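Consider this today:
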Amino acid sequence: MKNVTDSFVSLGHWPSAGSFGLNTDILATNPINLSVVLGVLIFFGKGVLTDLLDNRKQRILDTIRNSEELREGAIEQLEKARARLRKVEIEADQFRMNGYSEIEREKLNLINSTYKTLEQLENCKNETIHFEQQRTINQVRQRVFQQALQGALGTLNSCLTNELHLRTINANLGIFGAIKEITD
């Protein structure tokens, strides 16, 4: 302890120690002043700085935790959205396939219906043609029969005399009487 006091006492022996003044030598006083200021700042500011850093660290950790929670929520939503997308794509494919098969089915039904309609129209056409042919044939037969009958009547009227006419009537009456006796 004596050494420590001796050093303070020996300061009194310095020539400048007797008076108080400013030392203008910047190179000599600056490192001393800086070390004193840094020492005071470290000693008194250590608690404040530690509190500030702890608060900052806690905010950063909270932000990281919140970010992780948001990230996990976003990942869950993304997975749900992907699952919904897959489901919708599957349903769209099913609708597309059902639509295509429905279109094909309707197309076949339309083709079959058209064939049936064409077949019915063909049958109607053939029946109409057959009917018209029969009607035309009957008209031709009637005309031929009328012309033949007119020709035969004309020939008979020109060839028959009253006597020949009476003999033909008697012969026909005889044939008619014979048929009547056979049937009785």
Remarks:
- The chain has a mean pLDDT of 82.
- The helical segments are 2-11, 26-159, 162-183.
- The CA atoms of residues 88 and 94 lie 10 Å apart.
